[in-house]
Write a structure and sequence with these properties.
The protein has 262 residues and is α/β, with parallel strands linked by helices. Helix content is 35%, strand content 24%. The structure holds adenosine-5'-diphosphate and magnesium ion.
Length: 262
């Protein structure tokens, strides 16, 4: 165990990944949220949430329908007025406009996709990059998206609204990635999609995470979210009631009972 005074012991320090757990490196988190509250017309839907996400972590935020997950994401994106503190890479976001938060690399992939239905797939993807400079880099990223999602490449001139639900969700993810996110907020990506499509989207999330993108994955499908996440938080009626590593949450009898159907 990591007992106090351990540093006085002789011999080499333990190697991470072997033997007793070593506490997380003391880096500043990329996102540090303290006492975040938000709501609608005087009714609070999120109460004093505090949590943090480190760079390149994949963190799951799970909870039932109506728990306040989307409210929390909308507060982070500065779409919804809120109180408390949202420190992103050392900067306070509370009080910023959604565009300012977006400009700092906080990008939301919204619930229900919200594509521009009457625009082509390609124009939707380019909308994601509307704030970026550098045509060459944007063109390169566009080709990267088409390599990751070949179905979008074949349909690049098709109207986004005319595609299947799964294709639209791929388009929504690719559009979000075109913004070059530092922190990607993913809201209910799996809802209503076939498992094979969900797996394809999860594979892309895991690959961009390996490239250094930090991800907050909001899901009602707790099993799916915890299978890929490093850590997770459980939200119930607007309050964070549990947190831990994905393994700790999967093994938690309360989580198993309420969310995993075990
Ligand atoms: N636009 C809105 N106006 C009023 N109440 C809302 C609005 N959006 C959400 N709510 C309420 O806020 C609570 C949390 O909702 P939401 O954040 O959408 O939950 P989740 O995403 O976890 O399903 C719910 O009680 C919901 O009815
Ligand atoms: Mg929601």
């Amino acid at each position: 165990m990591n007992a106090p005074g351990r540093s006085q012991a002789h011999g080499p320090e333990p190697v991470q990944g072997e033997g007793a757990p070593v506490s997380a490196p003391e880096r500043a988190p990329l996102l540090k949220v303290r006492g975040l509250s938000a709501g609608y017309g005087g009714m609070l839907a999120l109460h004093e949430a505090s949590f943090e996400i480190h760079a390149a972590e994949l963190v799951a935020l799970v909870g039932s329908n109506g728990a306040g997950k989307t409210t929390l994401l909308r507060a982070l994106s500065c779409v919804l007025p809120c109180s408390g503190s949202i420190e992103f890479d050392g900067q306070e976001l509370v009080g910023m406009t959604p565009d300012q938060a977006f400009g700092r690399g906080l990008v939301q992939m919204p619930e229900g996709r919200q594509l521009f239905d009457r625009m082509s797939v390609q124009d939707n993807l380019l909308m994601g990059a509307h704030r970026r400079r550098g045509q060459a880099a944007i063109a390169r990223d566009l080709e990267r998206m088409y390599a990751m999602f070949p179905v979008l490449s074949r349909r690049r001139r098709q109207l986004a609204g005319s595609m299947s639900g799964g294709e639209q969700q791929m388009c929504a993810m690719a559009r979000a990635l075109m913004a070059a996110p530092r922190l990607l907020l993913v809201d209910e990506m799996s809802l209503g999609l076939a498992p094979v499509v969900v797996q394809q989207l999860m594979d892309v999330l895991e690959s961009i995470r390996r490239d250094g993108v930090t991800i907050l994955l909001v899901e009602q499908d707790v099993q799916l979210a915890l299978a890929s996440a490093d850590r997770g938080y459980v939200l119930e009626t607007g309050r964070i009631v549990l947190e831990g590593t994905a393994r700790q949450l999967i093994d938690d009898p309360a989580v198993q009972d309420a969310y995993l159907g075990l």
